[in-house]
Automatic annotation (TrEMBL):
One of its GO terms (molecular function) is DNA binding. GO terms for biological process: response to stress. It comes from the Bacteria. The keyword GTP-binding does not apply. Residues 1-31 are annotated as: Disordered. It comes from Amycolatopsis tolypomycina. This is DNA-binding transcriptional regulator, MarR family.
Amino acid sequence: MIVKGLTIRGQASPPGRRGEPVSPNLGRMTDRPADLDYLSFVDYAIGKTQAELPATDPVAMRLGLTLHRLAGALVYDWESTVHRPRGWSWGGFRVLFVLWLAGPLESRHAARLAGMSRAAVSALVKTLERDGLVTRTPVPHDRRAVRLALTEAGHTAVTDAYQEHNTREQAWAAALTPAEQNTLIGLLEKLTTSPAAAAAQRLA
């Protein structure tokens, strides 16, 4: 059975929209979805969605699902192998990372650079401050604002952690050749500067 350019139960499929090649796994179906893993569920989801909503763009769906699920797998790996064992969450590391590289910042600026809400940063900083990794000081021109900075212990902790974190980044990157890595970076940067990304930033 062929549905909108998808391979269903192993049958051949035509190219994707506008001439894009379609992955040989695109839309793979199964009678036992419980046997799928986190990443292979993408194939099943595309086929199932196309069967019920034929107008769905399978290539855009695959791109969105794959990026989202890969990002989730990366974060889970980094958090579980590097950051949780050190006593902080992925969010906590993001705050430490920004303060390490950007230096002392008002909380609102740290939140923007970390891609988090002010409320989330405020909650995380309470724990980081309790653990002696971050300090909070009032901002003279704004009584509601606070300035965040790493302590010496915080600087040591985040630099030690990032060395291990980068080892995990290298392990993931090793699946691609150097040329493929540069190509992927270029494509991802193109997405992050797209009109859709700009619109999302305005809403954030």
